[in-house]
Amino acid sequence: MEERKGFGSNFGFLMAAVGSAVGLGNIWGFPNKMGANGGFTFLVIYLILAACCGIIVMVGELALGRKTGRGAVGAYRVLSKKFKWLGWLGILSAFLILFFYCALGGYCIKYVVLNVGDLFGAGFGSNGLNGAEVFGAFMGNQMEAVIYGLIFVLLTMIIVMGGIGGGIEKVCSVGMPALFVILLICIVRACTLPGAVDGLKYMFVPGWALENGVIKEAPDFLTVLSTAGGQMFFSLSLGMGAMITYGSYLHKKENIEKNALLIVIMDTLVALMAGLCVIPGRFALDPTGSLGGPSLLFVTMQNVFHKMPLGALFGILFYLLVVFAAISSSISLLEVIVAHFCDKARDAGKGDKRKTYSLIAAVFVGLGCILICLDSLGGAGISPFNILGIEKDVNGNLPMWCDCWLDFFDCISEGILMPLGALLMCLCIGWELGPKMVDDECCLEGQSFKMKGFFNICVKFITPLCMLLVLYGQIREFFF
Ligand code: PHE
Ligand code: NA
């Protein structure tokens, strides 16, 4: 039987896993949610949740994967009677997230090209136009959005075709350190702008956003808790099998506990650093601009670069950074799907057929990506609310799940499937298999599992309870 090839080094594994975690969620989700939900207080709650849910689920997923040496579907099928099917939930989430991730990754490539145009005055840039005009023109040209989206799908597919050691590990080992350096450059630039200090206050000072009219109402505690929990889940790539899949390629001699801790710490660090890069720029140069979501990236930030000396150059660096972040996440998403089918083919003695399965999966992802691009973030009259005939309320608002296809796929995956997946994983490990299975896997080849006692209590009681709260909070926010 053909050998199942894994990561060549622990560094390579770590960069790939951090690459999966670090993504659009860090850049447009975390800083804004932190500012709008109590600044430093939010950070403390986030860190507590990361410790008693994030690290727990991370260790659990890595252990499930490594113990079985199988992707998400195979891991649950081998180990569990009650949750045999749970891996399929992960494959579904992976497709839904990929649909919008690739569309947005494509937009980022377009913005790199635009800023290159500006730098060289080549005429295909955005000089003279404000961010809203640039983005409006791009959104009005759906074919262009489709092409960029498909370029992103193609890049993702090519890397995954290269395999774990040959594709994913190589790209992330170079891309992640590069991302870090670019991020540092952008932070220095943003924080030295006059007026940048308001951005820091927005992010860190509790209550500042409310006192200064950036938000209208103080969020209640449950909202803060579930916003922090939901953000943490998505941000750490948990609850959908990505870490099971990467864990399955990790060498038995490596320490699961240490790696899990490092992934969580680095993802949180990059989220904070991304905040130091985008939020001060917004407060300094585009004081009424959007603080989160796609319009932060594609309208506010473009305004910031327009107004900045040498803005095109920083624009190129910044959007390149976002492309790196997005692609290292999208390859982990595609790998969740591809790994399963490769495992199956290999077990049947047919070789792993990685290239074929990567291609087939990419075709389906491409179709979803095309839908998102044609929809133009809800501007083209083909969104779920158009199709279902759902009316706007008196303020012109819609429930988030139906306002555009991007939000529809996001609400189902991030809102329901991921917290549900994590909840069921805890039940599976805590109550069906028993936490000892994780302990055994963490203690191979002379390693130790120092937080064993903490892990056992969390995985049985605390983490599932938090997951229920997050699930409730997100359903309330996204669907009503
Ligand atoms: N963690 C990524 C982000 O923050 C998103 C992601 C989710 C990637 C699930 C892979 C799996 O953007
Ligand atoms: Na993240």
From TrEMBL:
It is a multi-pass membrane protein. The keyword Transmembrane applies. InterPro entries: Na/ntran_symport, SNS_sf, YocR/YhdH-like. CDD domains: SLC6sbd_Tyt1-Like. One of its GO terms (cellular component) is membrane. Keywords: Membrane, Plasmid, Transmembrane, Transmembrane helix, Transport. It is found in: Membrane. The chain crosses the membrane at residues 12-31, 43-64, 85-107, 145-166, 178-197, 232-249, 261-285, 316-338, 359-382, 416-433, 454-475. The keyword Oxidoreductase does not apply. PROSITE patterns: NA_NEUROTRAN_SYMP_3 (PS50267). NCBIfam families: Na_transp. PANTHER family: TRANSPORTER. This is Transporter. It comes from Vescimonas fastidiosa.
